[in-house]
Amino acid sequence: MTLSSPAPHQQAVETTDAVVVGAGMYGCYIACLLREHGLRVVLLDRADKLLTRASYANQARVHNGYHYPRSVLTALRSHVNFARFVSEFRPCIDDSFQMYYAIARQHSKVTARQFERFCLAVGAPLSPAPASVTARFDPAMTEAVFAAEEFAFDARKLADEMRGRLEHHAVDTRLGHALTGLAQADRGLEATWQSAQGQGRLATRFVFNCTYSNLNRVLELGQRRSIPLKHELTEMALVAVPPAMKAVGVTMMCGPFFSIMPFPSRGLHTLSHVRYTPHGSWRDEPGAPLTHRHDPDAFAQTSRFPHMVRDAARYMPELAACQHVDSLWEIKTVLPQNETDDGRPILWKRDAEWRQLVSVMGGKIDNVYDLEAEIATLLAEDL
Ligand SMILES: Cc1cc2nc3c(=O)[nH]c(=O)nc-3n(C[C@H](O)[C@H](O)[C@H](O)COP(=O)(O)OP(=O)(O)OC[C@H]3O[C@@H](n4cnc5c(N)ncnc54)[C@H](O)[C@@H]3O)c2cc1C
Fold it and tell me: Do the first three CATH levels of 7-60+155-227+340-383 and 93-153+229-334 match, i.e. the same topology?
């Protein structure tokens, strides 16, 4: 190679219709949708694999509505999306366990009767748990236990499934490519990327910012106004459960309680706790500089598993035998307006001036379906 040889892609400006930044579940799903609408798409992710961040490090629950008694809209959307997600992603679904929702006697934001009524209204199947199951809970702590229909997804199988879909849709997928710049150009936008091999520029009509906790970092690259977001450093403990818990998941409703359920891609259970899973929080405010790093490895990671399991065992004593194997650390990002009602609508935000720059964030994996109408409207308006 001579000294003047350019690195691959170093100088030429390539042209495409859409750049999707972030190859988590949302970016992959959007990239495929855009191809179905006939657009040329380049999908960038700075990681070397698909679905490595929040789409992997989460509780793997395919929500069916139960979780959201304080946000009926999210509960209804969950319930509607559940059937479709389970059928379309069948090979990635683990339905080999029974999920129970229990109601705490104290400090719960719903009573057993209210929870039953809510599930009936949403259409989520619920029945009293058998006496043999209820007997596993401390009756002084637990008002009622219900059997529910809720499953888990295998995040590694989901990544394989999305890889197959990206190939099928001929999406130009570039892993190990970080977005490093955003600018306005003559007929749209220009995105700059960097990889270990070099850097390049893409002239594009649309940019879809699907970077979850990094949404405002990407907006900052183009000096765009940031979106109000709340972030938490979260810990999901990965635990080996006693044999009687292997085919069981339990969520204690509705307040500062625990949840334990299978995490299929590791053959373990996740144990989370509303009080101990968040290890600290901060906000991005429009106009204010972004001060925190959005990488969980930038923080001290001291497990709170002992606190989680101690509290969980007060309700279900056999959980005291759970063994801590590992923890999943991630930055969880939510819309500040949903802090009180726990709602998880998707964020779909077009920049005020660069209208073809769209930031997208979903509070749950199966909310991806809510993007279909947004994409169709955007493309119809843009023609
Ligand atoms: C602790 C926790 C528990 C959860 N539990 C559940 C649950 O049980 N069920 C459920 O449905 N949902 C759950 N969620 C929510 C769910 O994980 C998210 O809604 C979903 O994963 C978001 O997907 P995403 O594609 O937007 O983000 P991600 O999967 O995080 O993808 C964003 C991608 O952007 C990339 N990126 C960032 N910056 C750049 C850049 N500059 N250039 C290139 N690439 C970049 C990252 O590498 C990453 O791959 C949970 C989330 C957390 C954190």
Answer: no
Q: State which fold the 93-153+229-334 domain adopts.
A: D-Amino Acid Oxidase; Chain A, domain 2 (3.30.9)
| 66 close to ligand 1 (CB < 6 Angstrom) | no
**Closest alpha carbon to 252 in 304, 306, 313:** 313
Q: Is 214 in the pocket of ligand 1 (CB under 6 A)?
A: yes
In 3D space, the residue among 51, 25, 78, 61 whose CA is nearest the CA of residue 272 turns out to be 61
Q: Are 254 and 108 in contact (CB under 8 A)?
A: yes
Interior CA angle at 73 toward 71 and 75, to 5°?
70
Task: List, in sequence order, every beta strand (DSSP E) within 151-197.
Answer: 151-153, 172-175, 178-185, 188-195
pLDDT per residue rounded down to tens, the chain (383 residues): 323 334 444 458 999 999 999 999 999 999 999 999 999 999 999 999 999 999 999 999 999 999 989 888 889 989 999 999 999 999 999 999 999 999 999 999 999 999 999 999 999 999 999 999 999 999 999 999 999 999 999 999 999 999 999 999 999 999 999 999 999 998 799 999 999 999 999 999 999 999 999 999 999 999 999 999 999 999 999 999 999 999 999 999 999 999 999 999 999 999 999 999 999 999 998 888 887 678 899 899 999 999 999 999 999 999 999 999 999 999 999 998 877 666 667 899 999 999 999 999 988 998 899 999 999 999 998 76
Cβ of 21 closer than 6 Å to ligand 1, yes or no, is yes
- H or E element, residue 33: helix 25-36
Q: Atom 21 in ligand 1: which residue has the minimum CA distance?
A: 55
Does residue 233 line the site of ligand 1, with CB under 6 A? no
- Helix then strand then coil, % of the chain, to nearest 5: 30, 35, 35
Closest atom of ligand 1 relative to the 22 alpha carbon: 34
Do residues 149 and 125 lie in contact, with contact meaning Cβ atoms separated by under 8 Å? yes
- Pocket flag, ligand 1, residue 179 (CB < 6 Å): yes
Q: How far is the CA of 180 from the centre of ligand 1 (A)?
A: 19
Domain boundaries, given as residue ranges, for the chain: 7-60+155-227+340-383, 93-153+229-334
